[in-house]
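User: Here's a chain of 315 residues. Predict its fold as tokens.
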Amino acid sequence: MKYLSRLVLVVLVSCAVFLVAGVLATWAPDRSVDKLAVRWAQPPSTWLDVAGMRVHVRDEGPRKDPHPIVLLHGTSASLHTWDGWTAALQGQRRVIRFDLPGFGLTGPHPAHDYSIAAYVQFVTQVLDAMGVRTFVLAGNSLGGHIAWATAVAQPQRVSQLILVDSAGYPLVSQSVPIGFQLARLPGMGHVMEYVLPRGVIQSSLRNVYGDAAKVTPALVDRYYELTLRSGNRAALRDRFQQGLSGDTDGLKTLKIPSLVIWGAQDRLIPLDNAQKFVRDLPNASLVVFDDLGHVPHEEDPRRTVDAVRAFLNIV
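Assistant: Prediction complete.
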């Protein structure tokens, strides 16, 4: 009996030791925006005070462009996801991108409001503050949902619309990144505010790429570090708790030229959603990349931006 008791005690102590070691190994406290900005907000990054937030912005290309191209990133991404497109477009067009509330260096919304209506209001406020009246609006995933909702709300301001693996319709995913799954679990979202295995970020990125081999250590570093921005992990949990609903009937009112770009290997928002956008948008065309995933603009910016250049008549 004494031997059994000792054995149980040894097992319990061992489990406790391994648990503590695991927590210590993955302990990841929030990082201040000032520290992160040293690496991730180098020029041409600037800052804009909007609605109680210090918004991380990049504004590149010719200022005389009458219809700047505005790029909106998706959940847990940042303005850096558009680096490839920006490099290809800024020689001829003005390109504006910024970190949305809850993500990147902009950080949490002061009222913790992550509804589509709040995001539409935010986009409008940023562009108003920049003096931009009309624009081409592009977005990926959550950013796509915000883009088309902004166009529905203010059709007179959006001259053309580009949706890249956009959210908006009721979602039936074939696979969800582990990071999103953890953030949605009751209680686990709070735990993830203090611990964050780098492997969770790597696995999540590999899940949304068509070719997982393209997920480099440098890419994982960027997503990992910006996730640690103070308040971002709590914001992600809040965002999933609030849910995102969209009135897709509004799409049918949009007469503007629209381009729908999709990665056929997208398992988060599968290809049949692209067909729904083309069905409901009166003036839409579709370009599908058979080998790419949920973030085709990031996975292969060169090929995907060629479709954008053709759509916008950029020679």
